[in-house]
Amino acid sequence: MSKEGKRVQGLSLRTRIMIFFIITIVTSFIGIFIISGQIIRRVSQSRIENAYENSLSTLIAAIENIIDNMELLSQQVGFGMNIAEDITEFNSPQVDSYEKVQINQRILDRLRQLTFANVNIGLVFFEYGDEMAVSNFNINKRLDTKEEDYLFRANELWFYGPQKSLASYNGGQVLCLMREIGRLSPESENIYFGIETNYDTLENLLKIDKAGVKGLIFVNDEGNICYTDVPDLCSKGDSFADYSNDEKMVGGYRYFEKQSKLGFSIVEVVDMKLEKSMYIQDFYPIFGSLLIFVVIVALLFVLVWRNIYAPLKLFDRELDKLLEKSNPDKEEIILTGMLEYDHLLNRIDEMRQQIQAMLQEIVQRGEEKRRLEIEKLRYQINPHFLMNTLNTMHWMAVMNKQPEIDKTIQALNRLLFYNLDKDGYHTDIERELSAMGEYMLLQKVRLLDFSYEIRREPENAEFNYVIPKFILQPIIENSLIHGYRDNMNIELVVQDKNEHVEILIIDDGQGIKKEQLERIREYMEDRSGDDGRRNAHTIGIGLEYVIQSLERFYKKSRKNWGFLIENRDEGGTLVKIVVPKLHEEKENVESADC
Known about the structure:
Number of strands: 18
Radius of gyration: 58 Å
Strand content: 15-25%
CATH class of the largest domain: Alpha Beta
Largest sheet: 6 strands, antiparallel
Structural class: alpha+beta
């Protein structure tokens, strides 16, 4: 074990609880911090976006209302008041100066009637050809109708701006409408009608008094910039698409765009430092809640500490007292007053008594083991004496020229040596077959009228596969004792089946009773019993030994095996044993000993 593993195992409960508490607090704090931060950021971002979207919607609605009023006024002037005739007459060379003054005054009176009730209308003027004809205020210059300056157009109406007013009294930004009225005769010039918003109408709308707003950009219906109060970010006349991107950023600032139903758009450029400040401001309450959470968890930790660790210290002291006593059996258990800990103390006392009983049992078993070892040595002496005696009888038979007796004695000697072999409880198939040959030879001496045959398939195969020892003799013995008849024949066949080996014991004796076959079948089906201990001896000691030996041997080596016994149709019994191919040098057969 590594030093690090020893160090982790050596941590005290107090340290483990402290580490668990710190990890829980830090993990919870970080998790809540991240989740809360994401939620607050999204809420703040959504709130800011909604605020800017609403302000743009309000601005566009106000400008659309002003444009509607200007368009209505242009319709009234163009179609309802016959001002075009007055303008044409005013510019006619046949009209003298006095009449021109009268006509000009009449035109101005009509204009005042139209604009008196509309506070959003400021300058109203007429152009006759390239000349300024009439205006309700003094004009410094003519309107410069560049293509890049227009906001949008609707049929014969052109809207310009925001731009500086043409009126001398107004230096602010206005919206301007230009409309061509036309010419009344081929000899006359085209008449143009223009309207500007009042001096403070658009200024009030464009006034930036909202935190974080850097400026406004007006984009006409062709996507070109017609007005900007952030010239350091974009230039008038350029396409706005050249400055913007998919992240809605322009020049390092974020923008919000709202399109009017008339085709133009208004862009509000904002500094996202406001978003960060609002995010931090909104996060303060969450941070305070997190601190409160940490304090509550710390209090819970102290409470848990007092209810778990403190009683454990008392528990440890009581254990020390019990261990220090010379005769703990006579000591009373000191309880803690808590049901769970008192239960543990009682269980410890029971375990201590069980340990003492186990120690006494170990001592008794040690004495019994020594006694059995002595008996084992004695039992090992007797077989040696028996085998030496048989060896002496073998030479006596040779000297007296008794080959049958000699053959029988040698068979018995080899069989005893095989059965008393101390190499373990396992053997291989070849040795088991050889031992069965000796056994049937001995049985043939006793029962002269039966024959036997041991056959390998294929004939030259060697079956050096590990199996439990002494599993064939009980089956052959049952055939000779319970199924014997005169001139009986027994075949012992071993077949190689690629992945496994099949061992067949076939006889043509009396067979086995149906009741016994049924008991064997039930015994095999009940193999899930307690370690193979089913209804003992219901099938006979020999078969029970064979089945349990196979089961325990291959269960520990995790290999499949099979056992089948049935009556043959032509008479006699068939026993089939299926075993896997295990090699002693490759498989852990020692661990599979029965």
